[in-house]
Design brief:
By secondary structure, this protein is mainly beta. The chain has a single domain, classed as Jelly Rolls (Sandwich). The protein has one helix at residues 124-134, and strands at residues 7-10, 13-16, 19-22, 36-40, 47-52, 57-63, 66-71, 76-81, 86-90, 95-99, 106-111, 120-121. Strands 1-9-6-11-4 form a 5-stranded antiparallel beta sheet, with no helix packed on it. A 5-stranded antiparallel beta sheet has the order 8-7-10-5-12. Strand 2 and strand 3 (19-22) form a beta hairpin. The N and C termini lie close together (6 Å). The model has no long low-confidence stretch (mean pLDDT 97). The structure holds thymidine-5'-diphosphate. The site of thymidine-5'-diphosphate (TYD) has 6 residues, from strand 4 and strand 5. Thymidine-5'-diphosphate (TYD) binds next to strand 4 and strand 5.
Length: 136
């Protein structure tokens, strides 16, 4: 997977006198079926540090802000997530690290697969040798 496929997605949002409502529909506002939602909160230190073999994700900064560093087999790039109406789309086979969380940060993740701990590549070395092996 190429790092150029990682992108910020604008979440459709409607503002009126009562506030803002943002909504996400699968295969329309995100390029996958949503099978799982999880969120991380009361975050201490860094998270992530893995690539997923079969999972596409959208990361949303529901509260606060944080940084995400993504890697393909050759390049890396840092995104700052600080706007609740902008999510970061990370397709499968991209290595990611999350860090510099603000004190109140909450990150919600939409994913296209059920959780399966066997489908994780848990170090950059393991990730790069997997990519070499499958030729992506
Ligand atoms: P982990 O993958 O280490 O989190 P992060 O990606 O933020 O580093 O997961 C932490 C724990 O949560 C681990 O025990 C597995 C569990 N977990 C689930 O039960 N379901 C899920 O969907 C996820 C992502 C994790």
């Amino acid at each position: 997977m190429n790092i150029k496929e990682v992108k910020i997605i604008d979440i459709p949002s409607t503002e009126d006198s009562r506030g803002i409502l943002s909504s996400i529909e699968q295969n329309q506002d995100v390029p996958f079926n949503i099978k799982r939602v999880f969120y991380i909160h009361q975050i201490k230190g860094s998270r992530g540090g893995h690539a997923l073999i079969n999972t596409d994700q959208l990361l949303l900064p529901l509260c606060g802000h944080f940084k995400v560093k993504v890697y393909d087999s050759q390049h890396s790039k840092v995104f700052i997530l600080n706007d609740i109406t902008k999510g970061l789309y990370i397709p499968r086979l991209i290595f990611l690290e999350m860090f510099d969380f603000s004190e109140n940060a909450v990150c919600m993740v939409l994913a296209n697969s059920k959780y399966n701990k066997k489908k994780y590549l848990r170090s950059l070395e393991e990730f790069k040798s997997y990519i070499d092996k499958v030729g992506k």
